[in-house]
């Protein structure tokens, strides 16, 4: 399943499928990007980050892709699990000023 | 402390009353942020403190909102004459200032849920 970030704030996928969550950022001078996961009733938690001199970074089951040409960031989650259900936020950083996107709610269907 | 601590976790108040929300950041973190999150919405930036620098207050929605950070540690967000539209979860986060520019992982508290009746 794939979302288009701010224009499609919800994404529903089947357990085991891959998920792609997209984010458009606003400032071409931003030099650092982070994805956060927020579960119900909790504060956002760090998932993965990427610096602007990179275009891809992989973690455990997650990959972040950065396209600076079009100011686009994506989070790919492999083999999505029920525990991945949450709201996912991208954040851009410039001079230690962190600003967040609107978020995408991911729902994993069993 | 081990994490960012916020209090109260829940606050119900009457319209027109003042409220104070408290944030204890991780010890040694120089940057502290306040965000507001309305139901089902994203994070709205309110204010940012970095060390001894003047805070960035550009996100405060009105002059009813103010924040202080005493001694470079604990912060208090004050909302005067609360309105129903102030109802939201107020999140605090803190971070190190990294040695290289740009890296800034925020650690969030669980938030203070404010309900204005």
Q: Secondary-structure element sequence of chain B? A: EEEEEEEEEE
What is the ordering of alpha helices and beta strands of chain A? EEEEEEEEEE
Uncertain segments of chain B of ≥5 residues (pLDDT<50)?
98-102
In what range is the share of β-strand residues of chain B?
over 45%
Sequence-ordered SSE layout with sheet pairings:
The complex is a heterodimer of chains A (110) and B (117).
Chain A: E1 10-14, E2 19-24, E3 32-38, E4 45-51, E5 56-58, E6 62-67, E7 72-77, E8 86-94, E9 97-100, E10 104-109
Parallel strand pairs in A: 1-10
Antiparallel strand pairs in A: 2-7, 3-4, 3-8, 5-6, 6-7, 8-9, 8-10
Chain B: E1 5-7, E2 10-13, E3 19-24, E4 31-37, E5 43-50, E6 65-69, E7 75-79, E8 88-95, E9 107-108, E10 112-116
Parallel strand pairs in B: 2-10
Antiparallel strand pairs in B: 1-3, 3-7, 4-5, 4-8, 6-7, 8-9, 8-10
3D architecture notes:
The complex is a heterodimer of chains A (110) and B (117). Chain A is built from no helices and ten strands. Chain A is an all-beta fold and 110 residues long. Chain A has a single domain, classed as Sandwich (Immunoglobulin-like), CATH 2.60.40. Chain B is an all-beta fold. Chain B has one domain: Immunoglobulin-like. Helices cover 0% and strands 45% of the residues of chain B. Chains A and B meet through β3, β4, β8 and β9 of A and β4, β5, β8 and β9 of B.
